[in-house]
Structure formats: C-alpha cells, structure tokens
Amino acid sequence: MKRTALAVAAVLAVATPASARAQTAPAVRTPAVAVTHHSVKIAGQDIRYTATVAEHFLKDSTGTPLASLVTTAYVRDDTPARSARPVMFLFNGGPGASSTPLHLSAFGPARRTGADGAQSMVNNPDSPLDVVDLVFIDPVGTGFSRPFSGMDGRRFWSRTGDAASVRSVIEEWIEQNGRQASPKFLCGESYGTTRAALIIKNPGSLRFDGVLLFAVVGDLSGREMPFVASLPTFATTAWYYDRVPRAGRTVQQVFDQAAEFARTEYISALIRGGSLPASERARIARKMSSLIGLSPQLIETSNLRVSKDTFMLNLLKDRGMRTGQLDSRATARLDAPKRRPPYDDPGMNYDPEAPAGNSSVALPQSSVAGSPVDLYFKHDLAFATTETYNALNLDVNAAWNHEGFTDVNSAIGDAMRRDPKLRVFWTGGFFDITTPLFAARYALDQAGIPGDRMTGAAFPAGHSVFMEAANRAALTAAVRRFVTH
C-alpha cells in the first residue's frame, strides 16, 4: 500500500513562458494514466482509496487532438455500490490557476504543510473523501495540462472555450468510470465560480445535484454597488486591526452592523449624489469612519465612495503599511519594492498558520530529485510526464477573453428553476477584499437563487477560507452535510 511522502510547492508558482506551454502532439499515443493505491485516516477510520492521474485529449470536430487536460481523481475503495456514490468535480480560478489550493490545501487526502523551503505532505483528516469521491481538474495551460505543439491555446482561454473543455472532460470521466447514477457536485473557487455557472448554463449531458461556490465572483458595475458591497469587509478589516472600537463585538456582529448600514443609509446617500445636503454628507462620512477606520475627511474627499485601493493603502498608513487584498490580514510596507501583479498583493501567499499545526504525522521525505509538487505527482502518484507542474500561469491570465465581464450567476438561478432538486452551497471570508462576502450574497440573491435551497457559511478568513485548521474542519463538516443530505 502506497502513501504520499513528499513536500509540495507553495500554492502559486512562477508562470511558465508561452514558448514552454505547448507539448508534443500525441501522434498515435494514448492518454497517459497513472493508478496508485493509498490510505488516509479520517474521523478515526482508515480510508483506502485509489488515486488516478489521467490525461484527457480535447479534440476538434475532425478528431484532431488539440490539447491535453489532466484530472486527479481520488476514489474510495471499500464502498458498496460505487456507481451510486457521490462524486465532486473541483477547480480553482485565476483564470490560469491550477486546482492546487482546493487539492493540496483543502480537500485532497494529502495536504501540504510548513513554510516555504520546509514543506511536507501530511495525511489530511479534513478531506471529505470518506463521503464523496473527488476529481480535481487542471484546465488547459495549468498543472500538466497543455495545448499540443502547433495548436493555439487561446481557443481554451475564454469563458466559453474553457467551460466547454472542462464540461467535456467531466462527461468523459463519468462515462469512463461508470458514474452516471452517482449524485454529482460541482465545486469552484473564485473565477472557478464563473466557470461553474457557465457549465451549469450549458450542461450538455450533465445533471448536477449541487453546486459549491467559494469566493463568489459577481459583476458589481454601477455607481453604488461596488462601494456598498465592499464596505462590510472594510469594517471587519478595521475591526481586526483595532482601527474601530471592538466593544466586545464579534467579527460577525461587526459585519452585520456594517451590512445593515450599507443597504440602508449608505446606498441611499450614494443614490442622492450631488443633492445630498452637506450636513448629511458629513454625517454619513462620520458614520463610515466609525465603521471602517478611515478619517471622515478622506471619506468626504473620496465622495463617500471608498475604493479598495483607497482603503488598503490608507487604513495603516500611519504605520507605513498597507493591507492585503486576497486576505486583508496580510500586510506589506508601503515603500516595498514594486512587484508584478498579482504578487504585489501581500495577501497572495499569506498563510495565517505557518507552519499549520495539526495532529497528523508528517510522512517521510522522498529522495527523488525535482520540485516538490512535481515529486508528489511523478513519484507518489506515479504520473509519467516530462512536463513541469504549473500552479499559476499568468500568460493564460493575460490572454483570457472574459467576453464582457458579465455576471453569469443568473445561469445557476435559471437552472434551479428548471430543476427543483438542484441546491447551492456558498462560502466566503470576512477578510477577503477581492471577492467581498456581502458582494457574494448580493450576486446570488440577484441571480434569483431560491433561499430555501441555498446554504451559506462565512469564516474569519481571507479568499481561501480553508487555510486555518479550525476553518478547514468546519468547512469540511459543512460540505459533508451538503453532499449527504
């Protein structure tokens, strides 16, 4: 019986140059597949499972292979009636991000731990593998997934092309593994929530029982909503840094108070615009100051519309610091050397528990040479490839066609009206400025998602709510309930 035994890389890696993205055309070879057997202890049980890393060839209408898309599946062994066992398909966002965060930090049966340069893999007791099989998907241009030589990857680097390719691979995996009767769940984080909505919009042969949305992306265009939706997260961040009186309040209470102000007095003031009396403008600025920790003068100078940059660069300005965006609990010096976005965000690689503590026993290190994440796939999961795992591809991100940046969450609401059994689980972090928690709920409400089939969970966390051990355990417990009820 084989067990994972390697260190893995950080969530994000330096992007691979465009010239290195394509791999040799497959000619007559078949897709590569690697099958290994492992075990992990979850809730006191020894769970035996099979790991399968597999290529899927994406072809055009003539049958010509265009690209390889790689999935990593974990399927529990000791279960009767596997064909009816739940299965979840998971991906992250970016665009251009691999499934690394959800895979190696949240739900995979093996999880990385430790600081940079001293990372190791440990058994993950918080994996939901005891109740649901897991299939992690790396879209074209990420992980080991590549367009073939001579093929233009941009056909996959658009909202429509990306969603179609991922959907086709899910359909193929279900067919190959005889899982047509299994309850099926779709899980996406960040841009992955947009991908999930687009798959739901054009599902092909697929029917899902549930959709899980982490760090929901929604279109907040207009003169008011971008500022209204961010204000509660500004308030929780100010509370975190003691820039507003805590007065015994929890982060949830701070959020709720700010959300009530945002949806009533604040949005009303913004709608009135230039007709708002000066005295009322000053009062609103003072109230905002008491909630988000910026001076009334700065708020009035900003015309009551405090942008994300204004907040992040000014909340801790007296200390010469700025906050993070993906996780506002992270900080960096205002005079720090400039870095290429998104690496200029101190929240990018922020780990609130470094090293993360848990009761798992670290597994022995492999002696095989190579990068840690490559070692996990190539040695422990025995996937034979000459490619280097690409956790984040900024070339793909730069090339992406967002097709207008329109909000597509309404596709989920439409699907729920067609299918009365379809359910939604969503979650977010109180300290996520990139996809604010209040903005997520607003986007889902406006999408027409029925409240009685929507389950939500908020965490004292940033963009990736599963980074802290306590949050991860609570999140997995909520996910278990969602997929089994």
Walk me through what this model shows.
Helix content is 32%, strand content 18%. By secondary structure, the chain is an alpha/beta fold. The strands form 3 sheets. Strands 1, 2, 3, 4, 7, 8, 9, 10, 13 and 14 form a 10-stranded mixed β-sheet that branches. A two-stranded antiparallel ribbon has the order 5-6. Strands 11-12 form a two-stranded antiparallel ribbon. Helix 3 packs parallel to helix 11 (410-418) and helix 4 (225-240) runs antiparallel to helix 12. The two termini are 32 Å apart. Residues 1-21 and 355-369 have low confidence and may be disordered.
* Global Rg: 23 Å
Shape: globular
Straight-line distance between termini: 32 Å
Proper CATH architecture of the largest domain: 3-Layer(aba) Sandwich
Core attributes:
2 domains, Rossmann fold, alpha/beta, 485 residues, two-stranded antiparallel ribbon, single chain, globular
Topology:
Blueprint lengths: L32 E10 L2 E15 L5 E12 L10 E5 L8 H8 L2 E4 L6 E4 L9 E6 L7 E2 L11 H19 L6 E6 L1 H11 L8 E5 L10 H16 L10 H22 L5 H15 L3 H6 L6 H7 L6 E3 L7 E3 L38 H9 L13 H6 L10 H9 L4 E7 L7 H10 L7 E6 L9 H16 L1
Parallel strand pairs: 4-7, 4-9, 9-10, 10-13, 13-14
Antiparallel strand pairs: 1-2, 2-3, 3-7, 3-8, 5-6, 11-12
Explain briefly what this protein structure is:
By secondary structure, the chain is α/β, with parallel strands linked by helices. Helix content is 32%, strand content 18%.
